[in-house]
Amino acid sequence: MAEAHQAVGFRPSLTSDGAEVELSAPVLQEIYLSGLRSWKRHLSRFWNDFLTGVFPASPLSWLFLFSAIQLAWFLQLDPSLGLMEKIKELLPDWGGQHHRLRGVLAAALFASCLWGALIFTLHVALRLLLSYHGWLLEPHGAMSSPTKTWLALVRIFSGRKTMLFSYQRSLPRQPVPSVQDTVRKYLESVRPILSDEDFDWTSVLAQEFLRLQASLLQWYLQLKSWWASNYVSDWWEEFVYLRSRHSLMVNSNYYMMDFLYVTPTPVQAARAGNAVHALLLYRHRLNRQEILPTLLMGMRPLCSAQYEKIFNTTRIPGIHKDYIRHLRDSRHVAVFHRGRFFRVGTHSQSGLLSPRALEQQFQRILDDPSPACPQEEHLAALTAAPRDVWAQVRSSLKVQAEDALEAVEGAAFFVSLDSEPAGLTREDPAASLDAYARALLAGRGHDRWFDKSFTLIVFSNGKLGLSVEHSWADCPISGHMWEFTLATECFQLGYSADGHCKGHPDPSLPQPQRLYWHLPEKIHLSISLALRGAKTLSGNIDCHVFPFSHFGKSFIKRCHLSSDSFVQMALQLAHFRDRGQFCLTYESTMTRLFLEGRTETVRSCTREACNFVRAMEDKEKTEPQRRALFRLAMEKHQSLLKAAMSGQGVDRHLFALYIVSQFLHLRSPFLDQVHSEQWQLATSQIPVQQIHLFDVHNYPDYVSSGGGFGPADDHGYGVSYIFMGDDTITFHISSKKSSTKTDSHRLGQHIEDALLDVASLFQEGQRPKPRCGGLQEEDLGHRCGSLPCHTRGSRAPTKSTNF
């Protein structure tokens, strides 16, 4: 989501150790270290890794094989064709009485070797099967005979009891595209937005690059793709995120919202108790790998590597480069309230604290009248400061307040108990949603610990939200966790009639531990400067959130259209009406079909999309002509999306080529130009991955309303959208108030008009009428209130599990 800003802002003129002006480490050494890091990650688990390593087999299959060999030996049959006799000869001779033991050991060794060979064969077969991407290119709803055969074989080789990391060893590696194809696709993508003169010059640079440097750079990438798990992902994390020196706030974080129209309880401590308990239940399932791997379209497994760092993770600032610190376990959360920091234990001797016990602890913090110490209230503003500044201050803070800093950075996650309400209000629904988004994205600049993997935000009226740091994983990972959290705390855990968590308090629990910071005078000025910068940055963000309720996914599907392509074409039309010109458009898609894949860019502003937009603005064009151009634009977008997902995108390949060129000190004017581009429209769809957790038909208001991110360019927009149920699309728009070219509310109106105009092409020229929903005033009476979850009769809350 927020990656477009980082991709534009990164400057790879840094060294491996951050000390020089240019990259100076030998590229072969860097490739070697990339592979070394990959192998270290693979060796970080034991039992679960063993289970996933032998997948799709199981330890029981070894026992079955060993028993079968022993039975055959008892029946005087030799399935090893003499190999077991040779193994017995190699074993030490312990005397005649141990002859039978030598036979058993020989059988066990032979069974292990045969079992390992079978597992290796299964891994190779499954990896070859998962390398097939023909199913992506087929029309939606149609499946060819080869794809049906492929799907049957995948199901046969996948086994039955899958764990989260079961497929990791069988996922194919992300391929390195042909450099000629990448350059051709790049030139095609920039043609609509460049003048003839600029395009001719860019083409000359591209041909010069292909002739002089491309083959050498490509060779190094192919070498890395053979040695490391992924040829681009670790460099993407390092150079785009960890080496960025900008503030994390707005630039490298994104937010996730609560239910839009309902709040299960207005009791702040109760909502925090259930939410924290649900998050820790998710962590427990994650540690036990009980979360099922995500299957794209129900049949193709995606890489699960990013799940490893959801919890117990902090981005530590450094001079020139940050690093990610991940702990194996943490049994407390760090809590911020009214300028004070607390350490709240999450476990007792009997296991995870109950939601009611956690509520009790949070209520104790809310009732604590002690004031914040000088400068403590604004201390967290340092995490919103430029990274080099924060790194220098943190080195002093670690000496003066090591215990308090460790309690925050070593927490499972950060919890912010805000003193103000948030969410949709009856009095001013539009402004209240905008303020809600801005509070989640930036807060007040000093009430979030932006270094933590995520911050759970609980407002005074019980509304929830999430602020997520981007470097450790991408939005679908945190989104998966957030869907589980909302569904579990509302439907499974539930609330009592008075709005409190179910169960009983535990008076024997110790009070939450107040964290005290001994801040030297030299840090006070740094805090003040960081706070000023954070307030300036947060005050410059223009957020606009609106649910579009005239139609949704169901209408688009009835028209036999792709819902994502439909919205992307409408965004092109809206942006053109807003700015009067076309621009580079960044749409994020995932490459998790491959091992350790992250994201790729779909360049949505195509020649076909521009032709469609011009036709919509040309009054002489007929609706059949516009409809035909729309279908061409949609088909082009779909082909680009599928190519990006299958590892044949443009931007990650060009990025990796650029990094290699910097290591080799090979200056390429073409690559310099590519990486100086500005994305004035950055877009992302937030996927709904666990629709089975929600009853969207009977309770359509109990669906996550998605989230948003900051703009990628000072004069650009950031737009995310989520399909809420079948009949609503919620948009999150951001821009900079300092820009005279952008206005989030103006673009929002253009988006609504564009969606209606596009839909009219498939409604015989009539705009769809708004259904009951959205932000209509007459509908807000029952949609803006606080509705306790226990009133939902069809969902019987279940008892929480301690561990």
From TrEMBL:
Coiled coil, from the record: none
Keyword Chaperone (UniProt): no
Domain Choline/carnitine acyltransferase, chain residue ranges per copy: 175-752
Species of the source: Vulpes vulpes
Annotated compartments: Membrane
Domain of life: Eukaryota
Record PANTHER family: CARNITINE O-ACYLTRANSFERASE, CARNITINE O-PALMITOYLTRANSFERASE 1, BRAIN ISOFORM
Name of this protein: Palmitoyl thioesterase CPT1C
Bilayer topology annotation: Multi-pass membrane protein
PROSITE patterns listed in its UniProt record: ACYLTRANSF_C_1 (PS00439), ACYLTRANSF_C_2 (PS00440)
Residue stretches spanning the membrane: 50-75, 104-126
Residue ranges occupied by any Carnitine O-palmitoyltransferase N-terminal domain in the UniProt entry: 1-47
Family: Belongs to the carnitine/choline acetyltransferase family.
Alphabetical list of InterPro entries matching this protein: Carn_acyl_trans (IPR000542), CAT-like_dom_sf (IPR023213), Cho/carn_acyl_trans (IPR039551), Cho/carn_acyl_trans_2 (IPR042231), CPT_N (IPR032476)
Record keywords, A-Z: Acyltransferase, Fatty acid metabolism, Lipid metabolism, Membrane, Transferase, Transmembrane, Transmembrane helix
